[in-house]
Amino acid sequence: MWDVRFCKPSDGPKYAAGLLTLMMILSVMTTLAMPPMSSPEDFQLQENPSEISMAGARTATGWSQFGDSSNPANIGDLAVLDSNGDIYAAGMMSASSALSFGTQTASSSATVQPWFAKSDDSGNWQWANAVPVSGGQFAEANIGGIALSSSGDMYVTGVFYDNITFGSINLRSTGYYDCFIAKSNSAGQWQWAQALHGNADYDGTTVMTLDVVWGTAIDVDSSGNVIIGGFFIGNTDVGVAVDSGGTSGNDAEIFVAKYSGSGNLQWTKDARGAGFQEVASVTIDVNNDAWISTSFDGNMAFGSYSVTGTAGNSEGAFAKISSSGAWASANPINGAGDVIITAIAETGGGDLLMSGYLTSDASFGTTLIASAGGDTFGWISSYNIASDSWNWANGLGGSSYDIISDIAVSSDGNSGVVVMSSASSFSVASDAFSPLGFNDSIVAVFDANTGNWLRGFFAGSTANDWPAGMGVSTAGQVVVGGLFADTIDFASTGGSTHTSSSDFAPYIWAMNGVLAADSDGDGISDEEDNCPSDANPTQDDHDMDGEGDECDYDDDNDTVLDNSGDDCPLGVIDWVSDSDAMDKNSSTDWDLDGCKDIVEDDDI
């Protein structure tokens, strides 16, 4: 999932190096800061903000809720259990405060700390709790991601300094910042917790080395094993600084680690390149191999596999690592500017769906995605694993800030959906959108087989709102988690209007009936299918009348029905069969067999 931090979107991952180093030196970290958004100098609040336009939108139903607190809270990630649609969310909450979801409340102690909550698919909250963080004045933690097993167990990763306590299990950092990995059951009871450490100690006043292990993404395989990804700096459990001195400062490398379902570390692997890298997303395919995405500057090595790009740009890379921990492939996404991969999803049919944003033109095989001229522009793509080639790519956005933060796919692999933050005016298929405030939240649905946009749904506030994560249940409910300031409206999908009691608050946005339907199961969405009720996977249309051959009763449009006497159903098109018993020469089809005389009928 997308790791959100306080910056301009145009800065991309490159901002993280300087920002993180500065935070370390100052021993200050604004854990609850708003995520990437338009800076004040870039946007002025409109005197008469334009309304959200929903012209031509498909009817959708749903609900929305928010976490109510008198102090700021955010949301870092969200996951949906496939089988029954249960929703798990996680974020950060202010010190000495309470955060309520329905009748469930999480309460924090004297420090900023993580919260976790669970709801059913109708918005009935089951539980909410906070994870205590304690120690000195700089004790803190942050959420990197959450993932679910098929049975509803929740796995989480992130970063902490000093002490963090999961139920009765306490972890203490030894590096500057350390990575946590923990598991809870479906009732929110913590089962185990582990840490990946740095080798140095930090006493609150003197930094001898900048050892950091930071978990930023997580997924669970079909056997309940956990794969996490992140970045490290210095000498740590997951790698050693390139200079071997542990003072690598603003340089960071990525790591991938595997844990068993019972919390035992199986292996760790790293990948290295110039500049600052971090794992943006992890997804596990049907073979239990993991795919990770990151950004790189100029070059990067994944074991014996390498990617190259333009020095000075942050370009995308995605790589495969086997279930045994061996790097198996690596591919770049190059562009004229920055190309950021924010999320990956596996369709179950051998394709990877990816999302992100770019700052200039970028190539996906033979497909060029051109920016609309704004600071950032969203993109999606499909990559076939077996052939190592791109299926398609498409863009989305306007002339301002547009960042796609997450991507998901329906259980049948045919319908894709993304969530994005936008400050632009543009259309998703026939659904027009103009921002209500600085950044608004957009859900856009596409055909996973073609990449064509089908429809869009929008939510906006008069200030900033930002989607952080998304999930899709087997039943097709799409759920988005994000944060907002002031008042936000979810009317486009039957949701409510919510007003935050603090500077910003988390929201949950659930919607039904938005995904692309495929009534005949031929892999073509109903909107794009020339025979929506009859399987026509090749979309054959002999007479090119828009009605596919599998459902067209007269494929050649000669007025003789295919199953009622037409001996040439796929013959000459667009003529009228008629017969003059007295004059064969004036007939077009003297024997009325559906075959045009002279042209295709030899037995007239």
Account of the 3D structure:
It contains one helix and 41 strands. The protein is mainly beta and 604 residues long. 55% of the residues are buried. Strand 37 (465-472) and strand 38 (478-484) form a beta hairpin. A six-stranded antiparallel sheet has the order 15-16-17-18-21-22, with no helix packed on it. It is elongated, with a radius of gyration of 27 Å. 2% of the residues lie in helices and 42% in strands. It folds into three domains: 1-30 and 133-334, no CATH class; 66-73 and 335-519; 529-604, no CATH class.
Brief characterization of the structure:
With 604 residues, the chain is mostly beta strands. The protein has one helix and 41 strands. The protein has three domains: 1-30 and 133-334, no CATH class; 66-73 and 335-519; 529-604, no CATH class.
Describe the SSE topology.
Blueprint: H1 14-26, E1 61-66, E2 77-80, E3 87-93, E4 98-101, E5 104-107, E6 113-119, E7 125-130, E8 133-134, E9 140-148, E10 154-161, E11 163-166, E12 169-172, E13 178-184, E14 190-196, E15 212-220, E16 226-233, E17 253-259, E18 265-273, E19 281-284, E20 290-296, E21 299-302, E22 305-308, E23 315-321, E24 327-333, E25 339-346, E26 351-358, E27 362-364, E28 367-369, E29 377-384, E30 389-396, E31 402-409, E32 415-422, E33 426-428, E34 431-433, E35 440-447, E36 453-461, E37 465-472, E38 478-484, E39 487-489, E40 497-499, E41 505-512
Antiparallel strand pairs: 1-41, 2-3, 3-6, 4-5, 6-7, 8-11, 9-10, 10-13, 11-12, 13-14, 15-16, 16-17, 17-18, 18-21, 19-20, 20-23, 21-22, 23-24, 25-26, 26-29, 27-28, 29-30, 31-32, 32-35, 33-34, 35-36, 36-39, 37-38, 38-41, 39-40
